[in-house]
Amino acid sequence: MAMEITQILLSAQALDARVRTEAEASLRQFQEQNLPAFLLSLSFELANNDKPIESRRLAGIILKNSLDAKDAARKNLLVQQWVGIEISVKSQIKELLLRTLGSSAHEAWHTSAQVIAKVASIEIPQKQWPELIGALLNNMTQRDQPASLKQATLETLGYVCEEISHQDLAQDEVNTVLTAVVQGMNLAEHSPEVRLAATRALCNALAFAQTNFDNEMERNYIMKVVCETAMSKEAEIRQAAFECLVSIASLYYELLEPYMQTLFELTSNAVKGDEEAVALQAIEFWSSICDEEIELQDYESPEVGESGAPHSCFIEKALSVLVPMLLETLLKQEEDQDQDDTVWNLSMAGGTCLGLVARTVGDAILPLVMPFVEENIKKPDWHCREAATYAFGSVLEGPTAEKLSPLVNAGLDFLLSLMKDENSHVRDTTAWTLSRVFELLDIISSENLQKVVIVLLESIRDASHIAEKVCGAIYFLAQGFEDSESSSLLSPYLMDMITGLLNTADRTDSSDSKLRSSAYETINEVVRCSNLAESSQIIVQLLPVIMNKLQQTLELQIMKSDDREKQGDLQASLCGVLQVIIQKLSSTDETRPAVVQFADQIMALFLSVFACHSSTVHEEAMLAIGALAYATGAEFLKYMPEFSKYLQMGLQNFEEYQVCSITVGVVGDICRALDDKILPFCDGIMELLLKDLQSDMLHQSVKPAIFSCFGDIALAIGEQFEKYVHHALPMMQQAAEICAQIDPSDEELMEYGYQLKRSIFEAYSGILQGFKDTKSELMLPYASHLLQFIELVCNDKQRDESVTKATVAVMGDLADALGSNTKLLFRDCVFYIDFLGECLQSDDEQLKETATWTQGMIGRVMVS
């Protein structure tokens, strides 16, 4: 059944493009025509020590990519294909993969380890391949096995543990895996390569070890081995051991008390004297402890009392020694770290951890950090000034405004003066610190605002990496005036700020587009938070400026793919600015005409932008069109003949599902703008929406929005929705059944369930209201199922608040639209009485108002 494919695999890597393309086509044809034989042939290639390493490597990569993909829909398809292969063929493939672990070629067994884990991720949860763990452990226990096989086996065990859930293995299997892994870490028995693989495998297996950690003797042994390994001679092994400690801190925080003294000494020694990669993990250990304690504090409440998870206050107890250790790391900057935001070194890690410590202990950190700031802020060595500023910026979240505000007010002038420091690192960190000040504290007043704006607008002309952080500072400065009566304070500076930001966006000295994107995002925030009554003229003047810039992007010369990407990024940013301007000016009747007069030109620009094949551009243009539909109302109809084809393209864009999701939202915007004038386009739209719901290829996150969209369409076209009822309602009922089966222990799935429930109720509400005055009887056959679904949701006491609001609203709509026809239904179910009582006691005024209305609607039905 297997085929000789060595030459094809080698040709697929040839320098000659023609040879390469032909070989790739042959592989693709083989895969499509006979997948089992294709996978078996690849497995033979990978397992054969006589084959060239180049063909074996590619065989392994193709095998892995035939079992797994990043895209969920694609991955699901690959899993189904594997499941459908004959058992005898799969057994041969798995046997070959296990045999490859004994190969002398590192690349071959390393790839095979990954492929085995991918197969395990499909089969072990289904209780298939039960012999895998035993076969791997056999490699570890048989005498005289080569070190490379043990290394390969441990690596495989690590990957398998990473791929499957801890619920997929029986406890005795977990015990044997842990025993093999911990023994593999033994210094006396194994080579450094085997010990490294074992330590990494332990890191992945720790999530399986709950029972073992609950047993004091086993826990002590595991901790002893990990701590000893953290002092190994080899830096790579030490690093892997500290990674284990990071994982243990996260998984078994409540069991760490007896080991904390030892762990502090280990981490402290590593931070002060070990290689950077090891020291970074030692700091990460304390960051993980902070994460656990912050989470415990978030969940702490008077009702929890003694029964809550134990809070050991490790950070508070270690504060006096931990903070000085972290402050020392801030002085270990690299000379060019301000040029690259992706740099992760000791000082960055130390500052991040310091920020987490501040969030954990609050005010208690300030007496330990402020002396360091005061001591170093004026020193001639830039390292000291930068570290002082970084320390100050790092501790702004956590302590109370009562403690921080006097410190910041006293130091604001000095911080502003540091924006003129001779050293770029100091200016860069100061700009970041100022943005944190404006984000977290309310310290801007009429007395200091002018000074702040002048400094920021001067500093925005600094080097591009500093200017980007200054944009952040302006962003948060503007945000501080949102929903504030004092927003007029910013109005006198609005023109200068927008001009400065536009000039920044046009700069050519930045190698990437990050600065430009930051400048436009900041313009968005400045416009959004401005006082419209005082700044409408400035915003109206900005509109044609941005339109002109967007027009210019359409005329750019595209010579290479890089140019296409830059064009796309710029168009996306400009569409984003137009969206914000349109929304701002549409928010009052006085300023809306300013948008309407440019609407034809704006829409023409958006339609031209769709020719650019970038999903980011399509997302931003769609969102802006949604805003334009709201601004123009019924006038938007004239754009529909041309725009509807892009609407349909968006609804069919499964691959870039965010585009599809946003397009669904825009359909809702257009329905609200056009009302029943949307009718001529509804058949095409509904057909695509129904196909989207039925598709396994579309990302599930889009589907709730589609149900909500049914409600929008029904509200817009009223009784004309009748022809879609027998297609849409069964799908809504099917989705309701899915909601009933969601595993409550899966947080991510539960969150998706809340979105789905809310959207199903929104769909029902829209349809019920649409039919209310004319054809409400069409909904009678679905009323009982809807009420059962409402009861299911009401019984979930952990439900999301937005779900509660949608539930109480749809209950009222059901009673309102169907009237006395629902009397028997409501009489036979009493759950709604307690549910409405719960809603009426809420602090949320909107919820109380809706519940009162619903109570009235049901009351009217019951006396009818």
Describe the structure.
There is one protein chain. With 864 residues, the chain is mainly α. It is 72% helix and 0% strand. The chain contains 42 helices and no strands. It is globular. The N and C termini lie far apart (75 Å). Residues 302-307 have low confidence and may be disordered.
Task: Describe the protein's topology.
Layout: H1 6-11, H2 17-33, H3 35-47, H4 53-65, H5 72-83, H6 87-100, H7 106-123, H8 132-141, H9 147-163, H10 171-184, H11 192-205, H12 210-214, H13 216-229, H14 235-251, H15 260-273, H16 276-299, H17 314-329, H18 346-361, H19 366-376, H20 382-394, H21 401-418, H22 424-440, H23 449-459, H24 464-479, H25 494-505, H26 514-528, H27 532-554, H28 561-586, H29 592-596, H30 599-609, H31 615-632, H32 640-651, H33 657-674, H34 682-694, H35 703-717, H36 722-740, H37 747-771, H38 780-794, H39 801-818, H40 823-828, H41 831-840, H42 845-862
Helix fraction? over 70%
Give the termini separation.
Answer: 75 Å
Describe the largest sheet: none
Helix/strand structural class: mainly alpha
